[in-house]
Amino acid sequence: MMGRTIVIDPGRCIGCQACVSACRECDSHRGKSMIHLDYLDQGGSVASSPTVCMHCEDPVAPCAQVCPAEAILVTPDGVVHDADKSRCIGCGNCVNACPMGVPKIDLAAKLQFKCNLCYDRTSYGLAPMCATVCPTGSIFYGTLEELRTERPGVEVASTFDFDGSIISTGVAMVVPRGRPVDEPLPGGAGEHAHVTGSPQPAGHLEPSADNVLGEPL
Amino acid sequence: MTVPLDPTITPPGTGRFRDAGGLPADRWRAIRGEETLVATHCCFCGVQCGMYLRVHDGKVFGVEPRDHDINRMRLCPKGLNAYQQVNHPDRLTSPLLRKSRADDLRPVSWEQALDVTAEQIQRIQAEHGRDAFGMLGGASLFTEKTYLVGKFARVALRTRHVDYNGRLCMVSAAGANKLSFGIDRAANPFADCLLSDCLLIAGSNVGECFPVMTQYLWGARDRGAKLIVIDPRETSIARTADIHVALRPGTDAAFFNAVLHVVVSEGLTDEAFLAEHTTGWDEVRAAAAECPPELAAEICGIPAEQVTQVARMFATAPKAMAWHARGIEHHTQGVENCLTVINLCVATGNLGKPGAGYGTITGQGNGQGGREHGQKSDMLPGGRSISDPVHRMQVADIWGVDVDDLPQAGTSMMEMVHQMSRGEIRGLFGLCNNPFVSLPNYTVVKAGYDALEFHAQCDFFLSETAANAHLVLPVTSWAEDDGVMANAEARVVRHRKAQEPLPGVRTDTWVLCELAERLGVGDKFDYADSEQVFEELRIASRGTVNDYYGITYARLDETGGIAWPCPDLNHPGTPRLFEGGRTYHADGKVHLQAVRWHPPADPYDDEFPITLTTGRTVAHFLSGNQTRRLGGLVEQTPRPWVEVHPSHGFGNGDAVTVVTRRGAATFPALVTEAIRPDTVFVPYHWPYPVAANELTIDALDPRSKIPEYKVCACRIEPAAAVTPVPAPPMPPGREPYADTQRSRGEPLPPTSSQGRGTSQP
Amino acid sequence: MRPVVVGIVTALVLCAVIYLGSRRLHDFDSALAPYAIASVFLAFGIAYRYTVWISSPGARRLFRKGWGAALSWQNLRRTPTALPRMIATYLGFQKFLGARSRSRWAAHQLIFWGCLLAAAITFPLTWGWFTFTANTGAGPQYTMNIWGFGVADFNALSVLGWLLFHGLDLAAVLVIAGATYFLIRRMRDREASTGQRFGYDLVPLLALIIISVTGLLLTFSSVALHGGGYEFLAVLHMAAVVLTLLYLPFGKFFHIAQRPAAVGMQLFKYTGHGEIRHCRNCGEPIDTTAYVDNLRATMRDLKLDFDAVAEVCPRCKRLRRGQAYRTTVKPGF
Fold first, then answer.
1. Is pLDDT larger for residue B665 or for residue C146?
2. Tens digits of per-residue pLDDT, B445-469?
3. Taking CB atoms and an 8 Å cutoff, what residues of chain C touch B6?
4. Residue B247, CB half-sphere, CA atoms under 13 Å: how many?
5. Which of A23, B70, B384, B510 could pair with B380 in a Cys bridge, judged by C-beta atoms 3.0 to 4.6 Å apart?
6. What is the complex's ipTM, to 2 decimals?
7. Min CA distance, B343 vs chain A (Å)?
8. Residues C118, C192: one domain?
9. Which residues does B124 contact at the CB level (< 8 Å), separation at least 6?
């Protein structure tokens, strides 16, 4: 994980979507929300979880690796940026290769966009918008020491297991005390993943008006 | 099969993302260095989070988190979107007038609008007596304005009929606080949560209604505190709570009495505290003795062990706190429900200590400040009683009027509606409220308002109520005027003017002063700005329990807010009450009140066997007049729904009609196990014909006159189709800003009660 | 090694066509030689950079599939208009930029058409492919020749003539307007300036503006100053152009060479066998089978062995990971 980074704790999330509204307010996002907020247990409980870019470190940024247009920049501080506007061809490779389900794509604009850790803020030492406003600390930004000052004894993990491949990420997740921190977190998706709990009642989502999908090139 | 060349395929949650909808601000500004940050607070709930408004070229265009110690930079989605109201294209910018409701509202000049209002006031009062003209205020107004509403009604209108929408919100807690402690406010600041070992949250969906307060709950848990949540629904804070008591709505008094029963029978009371600081303990103990856990379990529909668990966890914690909100207050037994919580805290000695105490979470931004300075039907500034001759004399002196000219106590908001129907109130001046959405039993409310000969309503968007009025006066939003509000901790915070009012828009203060001038009492209403009103309010509250005398704008600017009572300019304010166990009653003791549970007003029978409860969702605020026009919030939660347990056999999204003795409304079903099988929930932010308040009962608590929103009998039945959500009202010839209304037609319920997941249907 | 070889071959081919197109250097204007030489280096650079680019797995696969689809006889028969339509709307009028921002689209169109016009005039001129001959001693009747063949006669004093001789000035005006817009945006707008790099983001704009301004000044010098400062300006202009051409393959300008890949991608995705791959979890369509298989192969090339995730939609990836965390790692607070 990175030095100052986001730490996510879905257990604290109240699903209020302040992060979603805040993400729009970030100057570098300009009214587009890059964060995802999913209600995990539809029909069962109000459990929810935010998803920001995990800023994969090893293997470094699969999205950038599969990008045919070299559009995704990874800066030396470990931040995986959103696609370079002049390069992105809107192919969607990053969208489908990302094991975490992070990048979005605007097909009309032929442009990918994803969480860039509010680079306009973090590069000046401020926290990203989502972590700044999160009412619960479910999205925390800072160092591990700062986190432990606020939440004594908290443990975090930053590796995920996808079909036996271990991905270590720049963003970390809180794990219960006593769980070995180097034990990878379940990735959920993949050839061999088995998920306990109820299957998701998935639904069809109509194309939205701001994303005119029927539009030819 | 050939896939067309057009790129129509994109996996869910990537291309088919939802976004804010068009923004009233029109376009995002991200220009470097050309902005001012104005430090202010949010206009919405009682937490009163600090925020900066970003201003460029005299226009509010954005929001920036502010490290105020109430919220420590945190904001909820409402607060983040609040700024978009200010320069919203739906704003009213001209007074609108019509002769009768059959006509269209037409723009008129301010001069004409005010003249007509004054004429109508004088005509109605001359023909039908002074009390035939009523006034209704609101608790989202700045404290200065709430003070003016009270003064205007008593001095300019000289009517007894003045009340405010806090009657639908805060009054049960206020009544219980007054009875027990002689002071009406939360006893502890939010920060005390962090020092507590056990937090009991009763009837409050903190995660949705006061999202930013959640940080105090979680902060306490990080430090090892236990969390007990009493709520019929498994809300986001109940989901992970140590104990979640999912009791049947309307049974809170039985539950808390039973908890007290266990506390007493297991010897967990703080006898020393009770002996030294309370009166009435014997009666309370006797009432509790009548309610053993087994009885409560039957009444509340919960396991009896839960009662015992809660009692032990709360009573054995070294420092415990209880917070409650509308869930236990919106009942015909609202005051008594609050009293049972107070009794529990006091019996266990949890009062007036760091980390131990009691609080009520106000719903509206100024729910606390709005009820202190005289817009309540029975109150005068400084929390004085209008029935107390001494108090009347004091206020008459301050206002420079004859004490005999001060009217007597009036009636509550819902009662005023009945009086409108009966012709006892024939004219009404309303500001900062939207009873067509917020009052119970819509049919009755509509009939009452329709009977008015003259109805003037002030608002900054055309609310459902204003759209039914004869005269609509466009007034400022919160960012266009200065003022103070008191949050749920009774901390008075300063709101700053971030931009000049839009052209054609006036402040409520200006409107009331101009009207007073036309009614011949201009000398009593000679204020240039809010600060002058506040200066008078300081003096008017001096020496009372709600003492603001030591608070000035300058002091508020220097501090992060000051909690009243603050009797002099060097006083630091009083964040925590009852230290040393001393209350504000003359004897300094807690006056405990015995409570016995009784069933809710609306009886269950074979026709109406299920409980309907109502409440809020995180993306919308109260009657929704403000939030239903903001693109981001409409995207998050475009429409109301009915939350039902899967045992009823409905599928998610099925059209379900909820029928009560007062009406029926059809919503899509949000089928979830997070609600009791015998209870359904409908959020109330939307207007007729998708209003929860078409269904609710207008039964009132006998003491606080709060309506019983939280429980009534209903049945649910399948319907052919869900009712579409109507567009927010606009003056004739104007349409609501279309981009913000894109998903309003959505027939599906949200994914979860907090809204739609960003890529979920 | 391979990119160098490709680069050299391309440069040699360009030399050959210059030689032939200028009628064995008969029409070659030696005053413009530095430009021609720079264009040879440009050809080397583009070819080199392009070859490097398509040697990465993602681009290589897309390159093959894209060209395969573009040159497929079957595709041409089925949707004959697809390729020309995309070239017009996508590469020419850049509708997709309009979906990002209308003003940026307008500014980009100005730069695009300006540069295209300038290139269409300059390269043939400097390569000696394009000459003007006066029919009489000093005009105003001229003949325009391509590869030595006269293609049009015109009067230099006519509107058409004026445009032909001032084409570069017109191009410069278009480019200056567009580039200035972008430059101001980069200075003022926080979105644009986030993570902005001088060499990558600002140099291209500055280069365009310098080239255009010095070009305009050349005209200004000859029209208004009777050639005053012309020599100096000509050197300055030439230096700016040469350096820009040399820089072009390695900075932001390389998107000019990359962008047509989007057309190839589009053709490949939607004119394959026509099958759709659905999410394994929720059954919603993800993309065409050809595309998903291509992506999985790309991931395996890169040793990203979790390529099966490409068959789960992003929403389900998040939901399943969240559910797995919630049920097996940390169920509560």
1. B665
2. 999 999 999 999 999 999 999 999 9
3. 270
4. 31
5. B384
6. 0.91
7. 30
8. yes
9. B132, B133, B426, B427, B453, B454
